[in-house]
Design a protein that fits this description.
Elements: H1 36-55, H2 62-80, H3 86-108, E1 118-125, E2 132-139, E3 149-155, H4 165-171, E4 188-193, H5 204-219, E5 222-232, H6 234-245, E6 252-256, H7 263-266, H8 281-286, E7 305-309, H9 315-327, E8 333-337, H10 346-362, E9 369-374, E10 381-382, E11 385-390, E12 397-404, E13 407-410, E14 416-421, E15 432-435, E16 440-443, E17 449-454, E18 457-460, E19 488-492, H11 500-520, E20 527-529, H12 535-540, E21 542-546, H13 553-558, E22 564-566, E23 570-573, E24 576-579, E25 583-590, E26 600-603, H14 611-614, E27 628-633, E28 645-651
Parallel strand pairs: 3-4, 3-5, 5-6, 7-8, 13-15, 19-20, 19-21, 21-26
Antiparallel strand pairs: 1-2, 2-4, 9-12, 10-11, 11-14, 12-13, 14-17, 15-16, 17-18, 22-23, 23-24, 25-26, 25-27, 27-28
Helix pairs in contact: 1-2, 1-3, 2-3, 2-4
């Protein structure tokens, strides 16, 4: 690894906490509860604002979301926090003032802040759950709307989710039109996503980053070929995670002190850390979806300029990534700040920004040579290469190709059975395409270019007879937790259940999911009764079905198309039989409903990680069940009792969404029953 020693002997350090984002408003004075009168007044304001917002016709307008972020922050603060410092009370009052100011502009159909320079707090409506999510931007003084500008996406560090999370975050960017506030001169706009607070930009936190980018691109003239991703601490981990898995989305990445794997990071000698020891096979497989070191080869596509302090307690993380890159034939650039810990050194950071700017200036917008590695179809594309089917999920897949004298030469794809070429993104149109060790050669076709390995040979698929795969494919590859990264709807059964314990568990599981989503993913989960689900719901959302085939009519509809047999008396799943009275299936599968398209159905599950992990450390948010699980129920399931279930078996379906036949496959092992 390269070392960088600044010449300055003395320099300021920007201190970044291990567990919190530094905010411009810090708590001062004695914290305590609000008076009953004050709390009631603020709650009335929040309800009044929400009524006004709900009454507006255009909930998709930027101005609506920009007003709603303050009401949302006020509402969450009053729900989850009981004690407030004087500084926090100021933020509560400011939320009231800002909401009133921005609501006034809604009635006038003009937002007074849209042309401001400097820091702004903005918002958008998430497609995942319809919630309002805030983000910050920093618009330079020299921004010219007529000229496309570079965008730097800056991911924040770890900060525990509390009621005040939104208002504290917003305060970093809310200058309220203060004419004296400093406005930078820089060749880029900065975007600071909230990422739903604390999840290392995984799951809906990942979606939040890309939705915030899209919202900024609608408001400002962004050059999409010059988007940089960077961050510190958890933000650096998110930078490794998103940058290496979406290497065509960014022109360069700048992680500053971020972890890159689960097991070794969990061994960091800190008192609050939870060591992740040996895991069941299916959980180990799931780590390949998240651990950034598995995607190190993609740094050959998106340049990574990393930084870390010489005495950082997490120093080993960048050593691990450097080793991973060397195994891929790459040399990691890692700027080491002498004598510093888990902090940003301004001189080292300045060198990082200088090097990133160099890559931004010279990076080819349409590369001629690509090498892309993935382990899941969730991350399946890189510029003009797109993987459509894998031989096996959570095993390494590699696709590399290059333009040579008018021929697109594709090396033998590894663990890939189907792929396509995005012709419009190639730097030039080739005459031919040559694939694999057998050097199968085809004339480069007009229109869609897709190749499939059939009977051991690569074949060019005719566009007229192209059919969509019935197996796992991009956007429909699982695991269960993936269903909550795109629009979803939870569906309750309203009819007579086959087994009361199963229904009580389903109801309790939904309550638990709603509570955890609200607290940790900062939104209201969409819920409908089964009789109220519409054709549009089926077409546009993943359906999360709670109950059994007796109580929930949608479970009854999809059951014949799922890889299990479920009756009043028994449940047959994965080659084994269970009593239906005290066992329940949880699984994810492509929706078989007419018109559903690329949507999931899920049975009886929210996220497979729970509050224990959500309230602890973000590296623990990995898939706990895979694609399916058989749960043994332990009643009672009333509202005063912690919901518990025993996982008897869990694992992954094969590439055709069926139970794998081999006992050594990814479907997991039978777990001991106490």
């Amino acid at each position: 690894m390269a070392r960088y020693f600044p010449l300055l002997r003395f320099r300021l350090l920007i201190i970044v906490s291990l567990v919190a984002v530094v905010l411009p408003v810090t708590a001062s004075g004695q914290a305590g509860p609000l008076s009953e009168t004050h709390r009631n007044a603020l709650e009335r304001d929040a309800r009044r604002f929400q009524t006004v917002l709900d009454g507006q016709s255009d909930h998709e307008s930027p101005a609506w979301a920009d007003a709603a972020i303050f009401t949302k922050g006020l509402t969450w603060a009053l729900k989850y926090d009981r004690e407030f410092s004087p500084a926090h009370i100021q933020l509560l009052e400011r939320a009231v003032t800002r909401t009133e100011e921005r609501l006034a502009t809604l009635t006038e159909r003009t937002s007074t802040w849209k042309d401001r320079r400097g820091k702004l707090a903005l918002g958008y409506v998430s497609s995942v759950d319809g919630s309002v999510q805030p983000y910050g931007v920093i618009v330079p003084r020299n921004y010219d709307p007529e000229k496309p500008i570079r965008l730097d996406v800056v991911l924040h560090g770890s900060t525990r989710p509390v009621g005040m999370s939104e208002l504290k975050f917003i305060a970093r960017f809310d200058t309220g039109g203060d004419e004296t506030a400093p406005v930078p001169e820089q060749p880029f706009i900065e975007l600071h996503p909230l990422g739903r607070v604390e999840n290392c930009y995984r799951w809906s936190g990942e979606t939040d980053v890309f939705e915030a980018i899209e919202d900024v691109c609608k408001r400002y003239n962004i050059d999409r070929s010059r988007v940089v991703l960077r961050g510190m601490s958890m933000g650096a981990s998110g930078t490794w995670h998103l940058g290496l898995k979406h290497p065509d989305r960014f022109v360069g990445i700048g992680p500053y002190c971020g972890y890159v794997d689960t097991h070794r990071f969990s061994e960091t000698p800190l008192k609050n850390f939870v060591r992740v020891g040996p895991l069941p096979d299916y959980q180990e497989l799931g780590l390949h979806m998240l651990d950034s070191i598995d995607y190190a080869a993609n740094a050959g596509v998106v340049p990574a300029i990393a930084c870390i302090g010489e005495k950082d307690v997490f120093f080993q993380a960048h050593v691990i990534m450097g080793e991973a890159m060397r195994r891929e034939g790459l040399q990691m650039i890692n700027l080491i700040s002498p004598g510093t810990g888990h902090v940003i050194d301004p001189v080292t950071h300045a060198e990082q920004m200088k090097r990133i700017a160099t890559h931004v200036a010279v990076a080819p917008r349409r590369p001629r040579d690509l090498r892309f590695v993935t382990w899941t179809l969730k991350y399946n594309r890189c510029h003009w290469l797109e993987i459509q089917q894998l031989g096996q999920h959570y095993a390494r897949a590699e696709l590399s190709a290059r333009l040579v004298d008018g021929v697109l030469v594709v090396d033998e794809p590894q663990n890939i059975t189907r792929f396509s070429i995005r012709s419009s993104e190639l730097p030039e149109r080739p005459r031919k395409i040559r694939v694999g060790t057998s050097a199968s050669e085809f004339q480069f076709p007009e229109g869609r270019v897709e190749l499939e390995r059939i009977a051991g040979k690569w074949q060019l698929m005719d566009e007229e007879i192209h059919t969509k795969s019935s197996g796992k494919r991009p956007g429909l590859q699982g695991p269960i937790d993936d269903a909550f990264t795109t629009p979803f709807l939870c569906v309750c059964g309203t009819d007579e259940p086959w087994n009361p314990d199963v229904q009580q568990y389903a109801n309790a599981s939904l309550r638990r999911f709603a509570d955890e989503w609200h607290h940790y993913f900062r939104g209201e989960i969409p819920i409908k009764n089964d009789v109220d689900v519409t054709e549009d719901d089926v077409r546009t959302r993943n359906l999360i079905l709670f109950g059994d085939p007796g109580s929930n009519k949608w479970i009854a509809k999809v059951l014949p198309h799922l890889p299990l047999t479920w009756s009043r008396e028994s449940l047959h799943m994965g080659g084994q039989d269970y009593s239906a009275g005290n066992h329940v299936p949880a699984l994810i599968a492509p929706s078989p409903l007419p018109g559903a398209g690329d949507r999931y159905v899920v049975l009886n599950s929210g996220h497979t990680f729970r509050e224990t992990e959500l309230a602890s450390l973000n590296y623990l948010l990995f898939p706990r069940w895979g694609d399916w699980a058989v749960l043994k129920l332990t009643p009672p399931f009333d509202e005063s009792t912690l919901v518990t279930e025993q996982v008897l078996r869990a694992g992954y379906f094969d590439e055709q969404w069926k139970f794998a036949e081999s006992p050594a496959s990814s479907q997991g092992k039978l777990l001991p029953v106490p």
